[in-house]
Amino acid sequence: MSDHPVPRKRVRASDEERDAVLSVLQQAHAAGRLSVEELGERQDLALQIRYTDEVSDLVEDLPEGSHLLPTLGAAGAPSPSVRSAVPPPVAASPESVSMSVMSGKTVDIAPGTVLYRNFAWWGGDDIYLGDAMGPGVVITLELHCIMAGHNIYVPEGVRVIDESLAIMAGNDVDGEAKGDGSNGTLVIKGFLWWAGSDVKLQRQQRN
């Protein structure tokens, strides 16, 4: 029998698990554990996570991320019973879904929303996040657009991360809307074809 240990199989990380890390980082920043610069650095690394065993380096020094760490055995090694380094969130916040076909509407994202999905074809909405964003908040907009696009309004201090797949298209983030993450993080995903959304600064609170 070989004395060499059998290497453990690595498990690929999912979008849900990467989003869970982003949420922990925002909570830690809101609690004063991470500076704005540290928050941005770790968010960039979180978006590049490929395997679940890469999570620990980003959250092991943060109490808010203790539930994302693998269970440790007596020798300090991950327990064989642990199948993934990141369990699903204990309590998921509300999700919203809508469709815009040759039309548009005003959408106010409600506080507590973590995911908003929309399919737009020859249309687009005015999406306001002023009530939903805040320190420690991470919201994902999954926007699939074909010859369409939205106007997205964010308050000051929101970091905007664009992960959309675009063909002859793209999203545009105004310079004024590029915050430092002190007021939350907005992640934009989706497929764009001859389409794109504009992210703008929401200057006034809506009634």
Automatic annotation (TrEMBL):
Organism taxonomic ancestry: Bacteria, Bacillati, Actinomycetota, Actinomycetes, Propionibacteriales
Domain DUF1707: 11-63
PANTHER family (alphabetical): MEMBRANE PROTEIN, MEMBRANE PROTEIN-RELATED
Protein source organism: Tessaracoccus rhinocerotis
Protein name per UniProt: DUF1707 domain-containing protein
